[in-house]
Specification:
The structure holds 2 protein chains of 2 kinds.
Chain A (H helix, E strand, L loop, with lengths): L1 H11 L2 H8 L2 H34 L5 H9 L6 H9 L8 H12 L1 H13 L2 H9 L4 H30 L2 H5 L5 H12 L2 H26 L24 H29 L7 H35 L3 H15 L2 H14 L8 H25 L3 H9 L4 H29 L3 H6 L7 H10 L3 H31 L1
Helix pairs in contact in A: 1-12, 1-16, 3-4, 3-6, 3-7, 3-9, 5-6, 5-13, 7-9, 7-22, 8-9, 9-12, 11-12, 12-16, 13-22, 14-15, 14-17, 14-19, 14-22, 15-17, 16-17, 17-19, 18-19, 19-22, 21-22
Chain B lengths: L3 E10 L2 E11 L4 E5 L6 H9 L6 E6 L2 E4 L12 E4 L11 H5 L8 H11 L16 H13 L5 E5 L7 H17 L4 E5 L2 H7 L2 E6 L2 E6 L1 H6 L4 H6 L4 E8 L2 E4 L2 E4 L7 E7 L4 E5 L7 E10 L3 E8 L5 E7 L9 E6 L4 E3 L2
Parallel strand pairs in B: 3-8, 3-9, 6-7, 7-8
Antiparallel strand pairs in B: 1-2, 1-4, 4-5, 9-10, 11-12, 11-14, 12-13, 14-20, 15-19, 16-17, 16-19, 17-18
Classes of the chains: A mainly alpha, B alpha+beta.
């Protein structure tokens, strides 16, 4: 829907005007910034995520389980909190290099998690076959392991790329303008809907380029494990003298990604001149955040359930179009969705403008794909054969759903709720644009305080936000472990 | 348990007929194996009997009770069929005990559970385990117990042993059949493995192109197949063209005695590997000679691949392992018992 809106809008305002709005030096600069950021951030995240995954899964590095949780944990720290942590320590992180570093530290878990899961599930026999054919460790990794990692690596990189295109808070703070930040400024400063919408159309185009690129790169190869039988546990490389350097490297990554924001949050709490604990405001923001996240998660799951059901149980052209179209929404940055909903609600359903209904609808559009993905996986854990068996044992459809399908789906449903919950708590752009005036969530309060350089006042909100996110993140890191151990 | 009868059942998918007027009767408390290559419609038949699929036409009866073919079909949950799918399909979130008692009312669970565990020869403490903690063979037996616990009218087994490795398959097959007999079950077992069908069932039906080509006891099927294809499907077979005169067929194995069926002239005869007798070639030998081309040694017996002289026809003889002749040696061949005749 928002996609269609952007296209229709571009057509309505006419080609010549659109051209004038687009071909400006400012747009060229934004394009170059955006592309450089995405390329740099994706490559850095891919390298960092894969290296960490290899160390944790394939070597005898001490305490792998602890590292696994710690490396997934940056997901609980929103990128804009992370950049706050850095920028309040040093202004050296402003600009391209700093932006790439900060966003990489925030988003590399998106590569780390799937790659680690694949590495764990990889059949060691393939590597043994490669060694027996005379290939060494490095060429085995390049020729056997890496191709197998390709789907996970590409999928993770795609996610990082899409997140970077949509990233607003962190980049605004690091003073590195991209399309997303420019759209927001354009909209807020002048309420210039036309210009904002034209910029949005370029942003959507970038997203589509990424999506198509990932599809092309993924190709048609098959990566399924052939043959039957339980695979053995993966080979583990002995680090020996490399143990300490490896531990140091992991500690450095975790320190930079988690330690720095934690340190500056605590520091500002203690020394900040503006530090205050307005308990009422804190509680009300936390309550709003949790309430919105819970309602958003419930609504999104409500929409996702029938889509996932159709996609898994009634495969057909219509159901796959429906399912695919939700993925396109995944590629749409929050700002585009928000902008579309603002314009539509002003023009068509005026009473809905500036209501929670509209905000929740934006959440549902934005986060539907995440819910569908986990529900799909959950439904596939409950094959129809088990339902047949249950019916042959005299159970009605309802009893079968209650006793078989639902219990089997529960872990996946939990993961989906956690994902959406997490996303809503840390969502900034759509909330800023769509929330009813006077609404304060943890994210928006943190944002307005830190933007006004009241770092001390911002810190408590960030800490609460991270605290709310931790249980959900922990659940997710356990979930990825479990699915593979099955 | 009741008997099962299937009459004139047809089913097509997207214009292709999968079952084509199929008839089958399974007597009460007996085991029938449906044997056929993959894709012949075996599983479709089973799913129709279970009620997961509706046939395009035809009738299915459990005893006197019509479950399909007379008014609205009885839904699967009211048919009282026990269904044992491939790989068991145990509920992964439930313990063995909860799996077995899944289809029972609460008050009957405890008593029936110990009966069932005993029936499938598992210790009582196995009830506390989860499916993934069991071996493949044990999972299959639990799936059978789950199907038998509510005392179904008919038990259906869909290739239940195909996912097990060879060593487990035979033992699991025998213990499953033992449990079925103890429970007095009427059972249909679908399989593509002829030795499984012949060794486990009372009655075997050979299925091809959506029809049952032949139904009979394992001995009938092996000894008197209705056509050459069935003959080859249920065991090793040499099919030789021959000229028939009375009860003697002249063929590349020499003059072979056959069971007379009144035909004469050009026919095909079936000789099973164990019917071919080998003797070392001696100077005085006057029979048919053959050169040993290959020997597959299995220990207890061996398959000897022979090139017959002078025709060069390749046949296989099955001999006791210790009597296998060396490759390249020359032997005299004869046929020990009556061969079966197929008239074209």
């Amino acid at each position: 829907m928002p996609l269609g809106f952007v296209v229709v809008y571009s057509v309505i305002i006419g080609p010549s005007e659109a051209w004038d709005l687009l071909v400006r030096p400012r747009v060229g600069e934004l394009l170059s910034n955006t592309v450089r950021l995405v390329v740099g951030g994706v490559i850095a995240s891919a390298v960092l995520g894969t290296a960490c995954a290899w160390l944790v899964e394939r070597t005898d590095v001490p305490l792998p389980r602890l590292w696994h949780v710690l490396l997934a944990a940056p997901l609980a720290v929103p990128a804009f909190v992370n950049s706050f942590g850095w920028i309040s320590l040093t202004h050296a992180v402003e600009g391209f290099a700093g932006a790439v570093m900060v966003v990489t530290l925030s988003y590399f878990p998106l590569v780390y998690l799937p790659v680690a899961a694949t590495l764990r599930g990889l059949d060691p026999a393939l590597e043994e076959a490669s060694y027996s054919l005379g290939f060494g460790a490095v060429s085995t990794f390049a020729r056997v392991v890496l191709p197998q990692l390709r789907p996970a690596l590409l999928g993770g990189s795609l996610l990082v790329g899409l997140h970077l295109l949509a990233e607003f808070g962190a980049l605004q703070m690091l003073r590195f303008p991209t399309f997303t930040t420019a759209i927001y400024d354009q909209y807020r400063s002048s309420f210039n809907g036309q210009a904002a919408n034209m910029l949005a159309s370029v942003l959507v185009l970038c997203c589509l380029v990424l999506l198509v690129g990932e599809l092309r790169l993924r190709g048609q190869q098959r990566y399924a494990r052939l043959g039957r039988g339980t695979p053995r546990v993966a080979l583990q490389r002995t680090l020996g003298g490399w143990t300490l350097p490896s531990l140091g490297a992991l500690a450095l990554v975790v320190g930079l990604a988690l330690g720095v924001p934690a340190y500056s949050l605590v520091r500002w709490l203690v020394i900040g001149s503006s530090t205050e604990f307005p308990l009422d405001e804190l509680t009300s923001a936390a309550t709003t955040s949790i309430g919105l996240a819970a309602a958003g998660a419930a609504l999104t799951m409500g929409f996702a359930l029938p889509i996932a059901w159709l996609a898994v149980r009634h495969r057909g052209p219509l159901s796959s179009v429906l399912e695919r179209s939700t993925y396109v929404a995944n590629a749409l940055p929050g700002i585009v969705v928000a902008l579309a909903l603002v314009t539509v609600s002003i023009k068509v359903v005026q009473p809905l403008y500036q209501t929670y209904v509209l905000l929740l609808a934006a959440y549902a559009v934005l986060f539907l794909p995440r819910a569908v993905v986990s529900l799909r996986a959950a439904l596939e854990q409950a094959p129809p054969l088990l339902e047949d068996v249950s019916r042959s044992l005299g159970q009605s459809g309802l009893a079968t759903a209650r006793r078989v399908t639902l219990p089997l789906m529960l872990p996946g449903v939990g993961a989906g709720v956690a994902l959406v919950f997490l996303a809503v708590v840390t969502e900034l752009t759509a909330t800023l644009l769509l929330a009813p005036i006077g609404t304060s969530t943890l994210a928006t309060e943190f944002w307005s305080n830190s933007y006004a350089v009241k770092y001390g006042a911002a810190a408590p909100y960030a800490i609460l936000m991270v605290a709310i996110s931790i249980p959900a993140t922990f659940l997710l890191s356990r979930q990825t472990r479990r699915t593979v151990e099955r | 348990m009741s008997s099962l009868s299937v009459q004139g059942v047809s089913k097509g998918f997207a214009g292709t007929a999968v079952l084509d007027g199929l008839d089958l009767t399974v007597p009460q408390q007996s085991i029938t194996a449906i044997l056929g290559p993959s894709g012949c419609g075996k599983t479709t038949l089973l799913r129709i009997i279970a009620g997961f699929l509706e046939p395009d036409s035809g009738t299915v009866r459990f005893g006197e009770r019509v479950v399909v073919g007379d008014g609205r079909p009885v839904p699967a949950q009211q048919r009282r069929v026990g269904y044992v799918p491939q790989e068991g399909a145990l509920f992964p979130h439930l313990t063995v005990a909860a799996n077995i008692t899944f289809g029972l009312r609460r008050n009957r669970r405890q008593a029936r559970l110990s009966e069932m565990l005993e029936l499938i020869e598992l210790p009582a403490r196995a009830g506390e385990m989860y499916p993934h903690e069991l071996s493949g063979g044990q999972q299959q037996r639990v799936a059978l117990a789950r199907a038998l616990a509510p005392e179904p009218a008919v038990v259906l087994l869909d290739e239940p042993f195909s996912s097990l490795d060879a060593a487990l398959r035979e033992g699991t097959g025998r213990s499953v059949v033992r449990a079925l007999r103890t429970a007095g079950a009427t059972a249909v077992l679908v399989t593509h493995d002829q030795s499984e069908a012949l060794s486990l069932a009372d009655q075997v039906g050979v299925m091809r192109d959506g029809r049952l080509i032949q139904v009979g006891t394992p001995t009938e099927l092996y000894g008197f197949p209705v056509d050459p294809e069935v003959a080859e499907f249920v065991g090793g077979a040499a099919l030789l063209s021959a000229t028939l005169e009375g009860t003697v067929a002249h063929c590349s194995l020499g003059d072979v005695a056959v069971s007379a069926n009144g035909a004469s002239g050009q026919v095909q005869i079936l000789v099973r590997p164990e019917q071919i007798v080998l003797q070392p070639w001696r100077a005085a030998s006057t029979g048919i000679g053959a050169e040993v081309a290959e020997v597959s040694f299995y220990g207890h017996d061996a398959a000897v691949h022979l090139d017959l002289e002078p025709s060069g026809t390749r046949v296989v003889a099955r001999v006791t392992g210790s009597e296998a002749p060396p490759v390249g040696s020359r032997v005299e061949v004869s046929v020990s018992s009556l061969a079966r005749v197929f008239t074209p």
